[in-house]
Amino acid sequence: MSNDEKIYQKMLKAIVEHQLPPGERLPEDKLSEVFGVSRTGIRKVLQRLALERFVVIQPNKGAQVNRPSRQEAEEVLDSRILLEPLLMQEVSENWNLKVSKHFRDIVAQEKQAERDNNLTRSIQLTAQFHYELARIGNNRVLAEFIEQLCYRSSLVIAAYGTRESVSCDCGDHIELIDLLDQRKVAQAQQWMRHHLQHIKQSISLTGKQEAQIDFNSLFAQMD
């Protein structure tokens, strides 16, 4: 893995897991110092993240973590509500005991994160559950699109979500696994639609205040 790729992966992880909150400024000079690379190298990573909508770069203002607008937040979640239930047919066709166990393991980690009151980990695991589920189908392009939507949903939840957005109030993922074990495709589609609608309803579009980020401490703990 190239150095640029390592930096990209670390920054993406920090954004998706909400260590870098929406609106956080990403100064090239500080990041260059933290990672021990040139500002040109950091700029390349930031431009890549900007293409994927995780970062916005403004002339004379530099880069910052994307803060989704209300319209973007609603469109991201509406897209998931439209698409993810449709995948349940293909997911069911490729479902087996080994796959079921893998997703039950993810749910066990979700429940542990909730017991630990670790909201960051809960959001990351929720996204992982959904984009890995999408990969079970045979449509790689659609699965990659849903993965991006899941990442962008993490930004939405970071900016506007509540604990309810990732709690069992939105539906326990184990319920979906049980339906897939029983090959109940129509019920699985209905469950997924209701689950995502509940997440959308839990969003409070008022925004949050960000704390000052210590980039050295943040990225040192990822080594």
From TrEMBL:
Gene Ontology MF terms: DNA binding; DNA-binding transcription factor activity
Keywords, alphabetical: DNA-binding, Transcription, Transcription regulation
Top-rank taxon, per record: Bacteria
CDD domains named in the record: WHTH_GntR
Stretches assigned to the HTH gntR-type domain: 1-68
Pfam families: FCD, GntR
Designated name of the protein: GntR family transcriptional regulator
Species lineage: Bacteria, Pseudomonadati, Pseudomonadota, Gammaproteobacteria, Vibrionales
